[in-house]
Design a protein that fits this description.
- This protein has 194 residues and is an alpha/beta fold.
- It has a single domain (16-193), classed as 3-Layer(aba) Sandwich (Rossmann fold), CATH 3.40.50.
- Helix content is 41%, strand content 21%.
- β5 and β6 form a beta hairpin.
- α1 crosses α7 (180-193).
């Protein structure tokens, strides 16, 4: 049985969902927030893809095999899940997000567009933030400059990015990722006001 919160006690905070096209810099922005704004709790996604150089289990992702990911989905342990770029599974573990919000933490969920749409279905009260590139040319430059994908993968990601950019109007707020520090400060300011 739940009891009403005592007078003056904070209500759980509003989840902030950050999404945007591939290579726009969601991971870089999230890392900056993690390093410079310790009051922000960042959700750690589960994925079936292999770690990229420098990625740490439990900090950047929970790296799981396909069988464990399927078990988590079946058990209802994920708020959202998606197959990204036709290959790898990604998903957001439900328990830690609910715990962070219940503890009145500023909670940030950085995910892809498919995942953001699923979260809107299950948690429509969340604030949805679209991270946009300064321009299409800059997005292409970032994607090619990253050097972690082969030509076929880059082509697939660019096609995906075109579709993802067109979804901007589904979001509550847009932040342009022209400068990581500025964009992070804008995002955290937004989180504090919600």
């Amino acid at each position: 049985m739940s009891h009403p919160a005592p007078a003056g006690e904070e209500r759980p905070r509003r989840l902030v969902v950050l999404a945007g096209p591939t290579a726009v810099g969601k991971g870089t922005l999230s890392a900056y927030v993690r390093d410079h704004f310790p009051e922000v709790w960042l959700s750690v996604s589960a994925t079936t893809r292999a770690p990229r150089p420098g990625e740490v289990e439990g900090k950047h992702y929970h790296f799981v095999d396909a069988a464990e990911f399927a078990r988590m989905e079946q058990a209802g342990e994920l708020i959202e899940s998606a197959v990204v770029h036709g290959r790898n599974h990604y998903g957001t573990p439900r328990g830690p997000v609910e715990q962070a919000l219940g503890d009145h933490k500023m909670a940030l969920l950085e995910i892809d567009l498919q995942g953001a749409r699923q979260v809107r279905e299950s948690m429509p009260e969340a604030l949805f933030v679209f991270l946009a590139p300064p321009s299409w040319d800059e997005l292409v430059r970032r994607l090619v400059g990253r050097g972690t994908e082969d030509e076929e993968e880059r082509t697939r990601r660019l096609e995906t990015a075109k579709v993802e950019l067109a979804a901007e109007d589904e979001f509550d707020v847009t932040i342009v990722n022209d400068d990581v520090r500025r964009a992070a400060e804008e995002l955290v300011s937004l989180m504090r006001s919600h």
